[in-house]
Design goal:
By secondary structure, the chain is α/β, with parallel strands linked by helices. It folds into 5 domains: 181 residues, no CATH class; 184 residues, Rossmann fold (3-Layer(aba) Sandwich), CATH 3.40.50.10810; 138 residues, P-loop containing nucleotide triphosphate hydrolases (Rossmann fold); 60 residues; 76 residues, no CATH class. Helices cover 43% and strands 14% of the residues. It contains 30 helices and 27 strands. The strands form 7 sheets. Strands 12-13-11-14-15-10-18 form a 7-stranded parallel sheet, with helices on both faces. Strands 19-24-23-20-22-21 form a 6-stranded parallel sheet, with helices on both faces. Strands 3-4-5-6 form a 4-stranded antiparallel sheet, covered by helices on one side. The radius of gyration is 32 Å and the shape is globular. The relative contact order is 0.07.
Amino acid sequence: MAKRTRRTAGGKKAATAKQAKPKVSRTRKPKDLTLDEWQVALRRAYGSQQNFQIRNTGDHPVFSEFAVTNPETGRTYRVAVRGTRLGVNYCSCPDFAVNTLGTCKHIEFTLARLGRSTRRRAMLQKGYTPPYSEVYLRYGSRRQVVFAAGTEAPRGLVSLAATHFGDDGVLRDDAFARFDRFLQRAGRFAHELRCYSDARAFIAQVRDAAHRRALIARHFGNGRKRPPKLLKASLYPYQREGALFAARAGRALIADDMGLGKTIQALAAAEVMAKHFGVERALIVCPTSLKYQWKSEIAKFSGRPATVIEGLAHKRHDLYAGDGFYKIVNYDVVFRDLDAIHALSPDLVILDEAQRIKNWQTRTAKSVKRIDSPYALVLTGTPLENRLEELHSIVEFLDRHRLGPLFRFLDAHQVREEDTGRVVGYRDLNAISKTLAPILIRRTKDQVLKQLPGRIDKTFFVPMTSQQWVPHNENREIVARIVAKWHRLGFLSEVDQQRLMIALQYMRMACDSTYLIDRKTCFGPKLDELATFLGELFERPDAKAVVFSQWKRMNDLVARRLEDERWQFLYLHGGIPGKKRRDLLHAFRHDPEARVFLSTDAGGTGLNLQSASTVVNLDLPWNPAVLEQRIGRVHRIGQHRPVQVINFVSEGTIEHGMLGVLAFKKSVFAGVLDGGEDRVSLGGTRLRKFMDHVGHVTDAVPPTAHEPPPAPEPEPEEAPVAEREAAGLTAPPAIAPSPLQPLIETGAAFLREIARTTAESRARGRSPIDAFVQTDEGTGQPYLKIPVPDRQTVETAASALASLLNAFTGGSDAARR
């Protein structure tokens, strides 16, 4: 907020005695504020600066209801003003409903606008009790239905309210069932009683939950001799338990291990809801590759009509409007089809592979969360892959109040360094699983399927060629500089984060083959190792294997090698349309000559590949969850043989170090969902070993420093993202890199190139000078040949050098001209 100024007699500006309030940090909580005070201050600062459109829809100039519209989004929210104290006002926006602060940016904007008038500001300070009475929903750590008597409320109404509401005005638990009678009797008084829609909706939710529990107990209780079948096929006991749990909860997360049959549990729950809860329309949102698999499973197990939504926009809209219990759509088109989905008004929404909405910032996640339905099922074996924010985002679709506001959730479970605010670990993870217990059910293979074949994991360490080491080490040096900067400053700019991700990706690609980087050369022994392994495997005539790589280029190389070996294979990647994927699966299951199913991670979710008993990972993903998704395509229900998992890891490289990262991330997952370790530290032994490895390789991080490992998804140093969006806050500007940086980097690369060339000459028994002094064949003249970095780097450095010289000379050459 700018300082107010006045003009002096000489025309100069002078600051008034009233100083502007210091800005509140958007990225780190000030030490003199509590968590709630900080979050309120952020919303107050942002809201007071907005140019929202406001319209008074009531009959009072201050204590009224206002329609506040954000012109950028076009969304309008209802704001009710009662005073300046936190909690006395109301807004219909999602942030107010969740943040438990008693205010939001729309309320703060309205108060700031009203406060411009001295008279209105004085009225706000006094507060207001309306003449009419109200039944409203109080948003806090718990949502509560509250009765507030107006100044003109008759004694009879107050007495009636006392039989339903406690002394604190909160609706008693035993009064939810008879709330309608209260409204009927209250209507007999000649007095206005306002009962707001969110309070009515909450009361309906509580009563529906009680109704569901009673119905399921009556129809499916243990006392029944022959509980009715849920689907055409028989379910395992744990699957039946999961289906009834989901139906009883109404909105539930089924987070079983990959391969335990989440699809069949969702279909069984949908049958219960259709027969007993009045569900008539169900929308299934899934990855493109799984749409026809869902249709096949529906036909097999329930027999209900199902429509796959596909084609151009007009065709999709017609399909939504057509008959059929199930509508099946992929995540990618939800944003474009929101109007049609709202017109469909589904009673039940099923999200398959729901980790697709783990990042709330994406358009897909935001669009999916705008789908409204009374019932919802979320299916994912990996609700937590990297950070706790992912779990919060997924649960938010089911129940936005369950885990509370993100800023409070992270404050309760993240461990941060005091000086830098950087996340260094997690705590109280078991408390999260307790909070989620009413809506989350999760079983592991070890818990429920003793008959599932065993699994053997083997890691083969593969050496690298000298050609692979060149790009690996070049990018390792970039990583080293960025890691050192992170260690020194405690944060990274967005530019550095992007450079870090790119360099790490190049290091990983170099571990597979140089072809992934230059598309010309093909150095890398993994292809030979794979061919040797498959040759031994295929000595068994019925053996089949599923081979995964993150990169399509690597799979292209594998495909050529398989053709050379004359092994028949099937190839799935993101460019294969849904219908053809179904044909690939059918061929792999039924064609004995199809020995290999070659896939990128597009085939790591939702596909059933039990006809194979071997999984080969040519490279490791960053997430243990993604790795388990790959393996879960083979090690799942319907598999009757032991499964072997083969991981190819380039020895002494970033892949080798990633083994520790995978172990750490898996421990966080277990702590939240599987009752594992309650506190996980980023400075733990496994992570310390990984950082020691990075430090020794790059010579950039001291061996005693225990920083979190570099990753393609670095921890943000900004304020929690959900609150930044809710408050309308933007990221702070990135720190501009030094203009000398290209010059310094080129110089360092130049020296490294000379050192490398010299070392190679000595290794070959030649004089180092021979590597630099050569003779022109045409003229016979000797010349100096000096290795330099790539052309782009040199051009960038030359530009930086020119700018630097121009700064030193002050542009004197131009002046002389």
